[in-house]
Every structure is written in C-alpha cells, then in structure tokens.
Amino acid sequence: MRRLRLVGIVFGLSAFLLFFIAGLSQAQDTIKIGFFAPITGPAAADGMSAKHAVELGLKEVNDAGGIKGKKVELITYDDRLNPQEAVAIANKLIEKDKVVGVASGSYSGPTRVTAPIFQKAGMPMVAGYAVHPDVTWDPTQKKPNDFIFRNGYLGEVEGAAAAEFAVKNLKAKKISIISMDNDFGRAISAGFAARAEKLGSAILTKQMYKYPGEKDFRPFLTRIKEGNPEVIFAAGYYGEGASIVRQAKELGITAQILGEEGFDSPKFLEIAGPAAEGVIIATNLDRDDPRPVVQNFLSNYRKAYNEDADMVGASSYDAFMILVNAIAKVGTDPKAIQKALLETKDYNGLTGKISRFVQGEVVKPVQIQVVKDGKFRRLAVIDNPEVITPPTK
Amino acid sequence: MISGYLITILITIIIYAMLAHSLNIITGHAGQISLGHAAFLGIGAYTSAMLYTEAGFPFWLSVPLSGLVAGAIGALLAIPCLRVRDDFLAITTMGIGFVAEAVFLYTPFFGGAMGIGGINLPNWFGREMTKSEYFLLILLVFGFLLFLDHRMGRSWIGLAWASIREDEQAAGAMGVDVVRFKVLAFILGSAIAGLAGGFYAHFLTFIMPQNFGFGQSIVILCMVVFGGIGTRWGPVLGAVILGILPEIFRPIMEYRTFLYGLLLLAMMRFQPGGILGAESILPEVLRRYIFRPASQE
Amino acid sequence: MGRSSDLKRSNMLWQQLANGIAMGSVYALVSLGLTMVYGILRILHVAHAGVYTLGAYIGLFSFRLVGDFWVSLFIGMAGSAVAGYLIERFLYSPLLHLPRIVPLIASIGLFIALEEAFRIVAGPHTLTYNARIGIGDLSIGSFRLTETQILILFVTFAALIFLWAFLTKTRTGLAMRACAQDAETASSFGVNVKAIIAVNFLFGSAMAGAAGVLIGVYDNQVWPTMGAIPAYKALAIVVLGGLGNIPGTVLAAIGVGLAETFFIGILAIPFPRDAVAFIAMILVLMFKPYGLLGKA
C-alpha cells in the first residue's frame, strides 16, 4: 500500500512537471526560425560549428534590421544525435514554439526522422549538410517531401564529381577507395565508383571502416599500398581524414589522396599537419571565391570565434539564410515560404550558386579545393550538368 | 486536444517503460545482468519494419510477430548464455549486443547503414491512427503485460523466480529446475522487448542500426536500476523519470548528459536499491516532510 | 606473379604484423589494469576507460607546458594513477558489499560523467598531441616501423617487464598475487589488503594512462569520447584472456590486435573491426568457459 502510494506520488509529480513544461510558451513579436544540431554527444564538435555559424547569420540579419523590420528569433535545440530526441524537438518546434521554418544543422539520423513530421505539418525545412536521400524523398508514398530542401549535395552527386575530377583532371586509371561505413560513406563511395567506372577507370580495392571510432588505418592503408593506385579516394570526417592522410605518409604511400567535404575543416589541417599538403577535396566551400558573401563570412567567423569556419558551419549558415531569404520575399506563411523555395533560381549562397532545386536537391557546382601552404585553395570547379544534376525519381 | 509534443514524449516514455520492464524480467526475476538488451529492441524493430515494408504485412500482424521473433531468438541465445557465469555473462550479453548491431549494419538485406524507412503508423477504421490513439494502444498493451506479470508473480513461476534470485544454488538443491526458469525469463524478457521494438519502429518511422547499440542498452539498464531491480513498478518509474529528465533539463542542455552520469553515480553510491528499492530514503523523506507520520502502515 | 610482387607481399605482411602488434600492445596496457582490478575486487571497472582518456589529456597538457614527451608520459601516468586510486577509495570501497550490478552501474555512470567532463572542460574538438622523440622511423625496403610504433613497443615492453619483476620478485608483488587468489586468507596472514588494493589501482591506472598518452601520440588526436571503444573492447579482451589472469590478458590483447589487422588488411572481409574482439571472445568461451588461461 505504501509502495503504491509512493508510486502514485512520483507519477503525479512527473505528470505535473511534464504538463508544466509543455505549457510554457512565449509570445513575442519576432519571426521564429527553428534550428537543431548535435550540440552535445558524439558529434558535439560539428554541432557547435553549426550553431556558431547560424548564430553568426542571425546576428547579421538582425543587425541589418531583421526581416522587414521584425527581429528574427532562433529557437535552438540539441538533438544529441539521437532520433527520439529529434522527433520530440520537431513536434515541439511545430506546436510549442510555432516557428515558420526550420534549418537543420544536424546529421542524417535526426534530420531523416524529422523530415516526415515537418512534411506532414507543412513546415518548410532546409537541411544544411545531412546526406541521407530519404530526407527529401518519402519511400512509402514514393514521392518527394516537397517541404524539405537540402543545401548540401547528395552523397552520390558529390562522389560523382570527385570521380569526374580524378579521371578527367588527374587522369587516374587505378583508384582505391576507403570510406566510412555509414549512409554518407556508402552513398558517396558508390557515387564515386559508378562515375569512375563509367569513365573507364578501375577501382582496385574498396574498403569500409567503422564509424565512429576508427583511428588506426594502417591495416587498410598497407593493403592499399600493395595495389599501388594512382589516387586514393578517402571518405571520412576530419578526424578520420587526418589520420588517413598522416598514416599514409608514414607508411610511405605516394598516391594522390582525394577527400570530400568531411575533410573540410581547419581541424583536419591541424591534426594532419604537414601531411595534409597537396590533399585534394570535393566540397562546397570555396575559400578563393571573391564574392563578398564568402569572404565576409570567412573573416567574420574568424573574428567572432577565433578559428576558421568549416563545411558544416558554412552549410548550416546557408540553410538558415536560404530560409531567411525566402521569408524576406514572401512573409511568414509556411506555405508561401515553401513556394518561394520551390521557385528558387540562381540563389547566391555561401556554399555556391544554387541554380535551382530538383525534388528538394540542389543543382550547384562542386568545388575542388587543394591544400596549399597549409590552407584550402581553389583548384577546380565541377559544373558538368551530367554530374551535378541530382537524379529525378 | 493534447499537444503533439506531449504525446510524442509520452509515447517515448511508455515504450521505454515496456523495455525497462522486459529487462527487469531478465535481471530481476532471473538475476542475470544483461548489457545487450537493445539487441532485442533492434530485432523486434527490424522484424516489424521488414515485414511491413518488404512483405506488406499490416501493423497488426507485424508487431506481434516482432515479439515472437525476438522471443525465439532470446530462447536460442539463452542456452549459450546460461553456460557462462556471472560477469562472463554480463560481457557476453554486451558482445551479443555488438554482434546484433553489426549484423544490422552490414547486411544489405536489412538496409545496412541506410536503415529502413517508411514504417508508418497503423491504419484502422479506414484511416491512419493518430499519435494519441497510438499512445493509448501501447498503454493498453503494456497495462495488460503488467497485469500478467502481477499474476505470474503470484504463481509458482513467480515463486520459482524469486527463489532463484535469492539464492540460485539453494533453489537448485531444493529441486527447482533453475535452467528452465532462467530460459523462461529470457524468452519473456526478449519477447516483450521485441514487441516494444515493433512499436518503436512504427513510431519513429525510420530505424538505423545505431539506434540499437550499447548506449541504448545502457539507457534501458539504468532505468531499471534507478527504479529498483526486481520491483514491479521500479523500472516503469525509472523510465518515466529518466525519460522526462532530458525534457526538463533541456534549458541546461550543455550539461544534460553530464548530470545524467552523475545522477547514476549518486544513485548507486547512496541508493543502490533504486527509488523503489528496499532501503530507499524516498518514503522516509516523504513521510517526514510531506505527510504526518502515519500511525500504522 | 614475380619476385618483386612476392617481395611486396611479404613486406606488406611484415608491415601488417607491426601494425597488429602495435595496436595489441596498447590494448594490453589498457586491459591489464582492468584485469588486475577484477582479479582483486571482482568489479568490472568500466570507468577505467575514463582514466585512460584522462591520462591522454593530462599528458597532452603537460606536453604543451613542458615540451618533452617522456615528461608528459610520466605526468599522464601519474595523473591517471591518482584518479584510479580516488575512484577506488570513494566509489568502489563503500559498494563492495552490495550486489555486483551496483558498482558496475556506478562505474558506467562515472564513465559517462567523465566523458562529458572532458568535453565541458577541454571542448568537444579533437586536440593534437604532436610529440616526437626524434629517433625517426626504421625502414627496411618498403617496410617501415614508424617512430610512434617503436615508442609503443618500447613502453609496453618496459611496463610488462616491470610488472613481471614486481609481481614475482618483490614482497608487495607476492602479497598482490595472494590477494588475487584469496583476499581473506591473505589478510589472515598479515597482508594489508587495503594497501594492496590501492597499489593495484595505482599500477593499473598508470598503465591505462600510458596507453592514453601513447594512442594520443600515435594518432595525433585526443578527444573526449576516445575511451568509448577501449571501454568495451578491453572488457572483451580480459574475458577472452581469463578474468584476473595477467598473462592471459596480454596474450588476448596482442591476439586481438593481430586478428583485427589480419581481417582488415589481409583477408579484407568487410566486417567491423571492433566486433572481432567480441566474436573471438564468444568463440573462445564456447570451448573454454573461463577464457584462454582463466581458471574457475
């Protein structure tokens, strides 16, 4: 009996707290935009990067007077890279916080889970860099989620662009692939292999390593060394990329290393040290882009946070700005915002000029950057429409 | 109308309550530490997901089947598990968890790293169920399971479990078929976890192998321990409290996980029996400061 | 096929051997502490991985101050040793009389809190630990034993010799072995069990700290969750080797390091590296339920 009373009390208290929290809401005359990222947990570094960049964008917008005179309010949530939390966050943003649009600064897992929720609620979301194809595509109904847009490239598109460069520019006939084993790694390496083989080159080995956690690539690289490829296409985030590049140098591998947007971070340069010199990556941020939107962002970020920006931050910034831009055009009705986004033409983004969206995916040239004198510099741009146009389903 | 946000929290909590309860059967009744329980959550989730998306099974079939499949696999795994003792068992269960996650990750049949998507809420009366209705459904099922557990607790099965938990060797010496009852607990615990997995898959609509790893197993275990292993309501309470905590702590989001770890630490150091356990101070605190001292209890 | 590709193949095999033994050595350093703690307290000290990470961080920060690898290694080991001692004194000691799951969960809670503490204090980003001792790599043809690999082998070897000498040639070592076998009897013979437990933790934690520093230098990376994989991999290794059995643990650790490298580098089976330790463990347990060298 006493036990039951105890149970009842704790339940009651919890229920009370829950209703209390759920009931809290604020009413202000601002334009509310939702934002979520893995601020704590295993992807905290990227979460912080995304958060910093978007907050920079927020400051820029509000310092310029906001949108049509109204300040923009950013509602930020930490998803801890946990899909259940992402579901709760999505619902909260829609109902409690009553945002007019959402920017995702998170990975595929949380973004993918929230996409159908936003789609159903008619809430536009722009994903910064999450790569899973199902973010913009509903697999059961077999149609696109037309309220969801993605600023980053589809994994297969980025991989294809990297292959285009490897075969046409680097003239590589023998290539080895090493990639992390998650949705991003699989998509990008598949895209790379398909395009490379189509252009007539041979993929000698394709190895996948576990993510997260793998830091010792020596067994993989030793095997790659045996085959003597001209180019090694390596997919990973900055920690893995740096390790691969360093250990390859240690083992005396001379093949050209070609990476992707995961490498695009000052941390990669720091950890890899001198071994990073000469590494080429396919990414969306072009440091040598003379457009003010790029140069201002790069210097403002550095001033505000005392470190260089990376791809994650830049992509999240763009996702936020794309929303802001649409709101500035048509106001705060989510349906109108969605329509404006669908009609995007030649948007001048930080991470490249988006000519248009195809089923929520960008048509945007892929940047090829090289590490020269310890910094990322422009090497080439892939804008072959055959490569950069996302496939329609 | 209850807000959708609240409902999603409630659904998450009730699924975890079911999971904690199922683990409690294995740890509490059979006295076996399992560090890989999320594997059964995963087996159930993937079973329901595959049946639903690939074989076109309706929700009403795929979810019960996920419980059955998980239970069957639990039975299979019980046998090698019981050959192994105590701490070895704890680590073996952890190993099972890793192997299960690896299987989901590496078998293209299960969608691999891409996971499985498009697992929708069930249809009834010609339309899709609302989230509130889904919550009530799970609540009903879980309530029924708790009722069953109550009845079982009073039956000879419950007594056998209690005796095994108290002192395995003595129970064996008294003629209790220890192995059989342990296997029974395993099967029941994994089946219910699988059932929860089915509900989980249809709630999230998308599952990935990473959802079912070691971290998830620990979350479930902590709920059981926090509430009190072996008690009927402890794990449920643990699920409720630890499920609400992330939402309450959201404002101090930077420190959430840190506080969570500290909480576990503090609980074990000072209240190892859990909140509803034998030496919990909670009744004392309540009695002393909130209620008049009861004259009889 | 030809002589040159045969040579290449055998060079690659040597290289993989070196890779495998290097990783195995680090695994050994981490796992030893775990098995020693289990041997004497019968507790699964999951927070040991937190001590490992702490060693890496302390080593890194002392390296930044002092600039010398060996000094930073020593300070990292000392820091870890102290941490290990404190954990035993204030967390495990009061919980010894309770069911085993209690200290286990407490340890897990501590590990989670430690990981987060590292993130809060040092930031979520990876930090670089660029220490060198200036001896360069050892190259024979296209086989290369890198400087960091040499360091790892050296430190592990030294630690193992030291441990062996300590356990077999000193009185305290003898007392430790006695306690591992039967603490009650040992205490009735006048052994100060509490002091032995403390020494046990100091040693084991120091070795974990060394492992943390070595991995930090090997990969040039120190980050808050670097202890996550060693946490469970070390558990699998100590079970595989025989809980509480020191030679068994070393054998298992090197074995796992080699097996992982073998699977990835030579057989090229697309299988997660971390599962190798567990599969090996489960397989061995089927035939030897107490591990490779363990006894009931």
What would your notes on this structure say?
The complex is a heterotrimer of chains A (393), B (297) and C (296). Chain A has helices spanning 2-23, 44-63, 83-96, 108-121, 155-169, 183-198, 218-227, 238-250, 266-272, 292-305, 311-330, 334-342, 385-388; strands spanning 31-37, 72-78, 101-104, 125-127, 137-138, 143-144, 148-150, 174-180, 202-209, 231-235, 256-259, 280-283, 347-349, 352-354, 356-358, 361-363, 366-372, 375-382. Chain A is an alpha/beta fold. Chain A has two domains: 29-153 and 291-354, 3-Layer(aba) Sandwich (Rossmann fold); 155-283 and 367-388, Response regulator (Rossmann fold, 3-Layer(aba) Sandwich). Chain A has a seven-stranded mixed β-sheet, with helices on both faces. A five-stranded parallel β-sheet of chain A has the order 2-1-3-4-7. In chain A, strands 5-6 form a two-stranded antiparallel sheet. The radius of gyration of chain A is 22 Å and the shape is globular. Chain B is mainly alpha-helical and 297 residues long. Chain B has one domain (4-244). In chain B, 70% of the residues lie in helices and 3% in strands. Chain B has twelve helices and four strands, in the order H-H-H-H-E-E-E-H-H-H-H-E-H-H-H-H. Chain B has helices spanning 4-29, 38-53, 59-83, 86-106, 131-154, 156-166, 168-173, 178-204, 214-227, 234-248, 256-270, 282-289; strands spanning 116-117, 123-124, 127-128, 206-207. In chain B, the strands form two sheets. Chain B has a two-stranded antiparallel ribbon with strand order 1-4. In chain B, strands 2-3 form a two-stranded antiparallel sheet. Chain B is globular and about 50 Å long. The N and C termini of chain B lie far apart (40 Å). Mean pLDDT of chain B is 83; it is low at 293-297. Chain C is mostly helical and 296 residues long. Chain C has a single domain, classed as ABC transporter involved in vitamin B12 uptake, BtuC. Helices cover 75% and strands 2% of the residues of chain C. Chain C contains eleven helices and two strands. Chain C has helices at residues 3-41, 48-66, 69-92, 101-122, 147-169, 171-181, 183-188, 193-219, 228-241, 246-267, 273-287; strands at residues 138-140, 143-145. Chain C has a two-stranded antiparallel ribbon. In chain C, strand 1 (138-140) and strand 2 form a beta hairpin. In chain C, helix 5 crosses helix 6 and helix 9 crosses helix 10. Chain C starts with a helix and ends in a 9-residue tail after the last helix. The A-B interface holds A 1-3, 6-7, 9-11, 14, 17-19, 21-22, 39-41, 77-78, 80, 83-85, 87-88, 91-92, 94-96, 109, 112-113, 116, 132, 134, 138-140, 181-183, 185-186 and B 3-9, 12, 53, 105-106, 112-115, 117-118, 120, 203-206, 208, 210-211, 231, 233, 237, 240-241, 244, 246-248, 250, 253-254, 256-257, 275-276, 282-283, 286, 297.
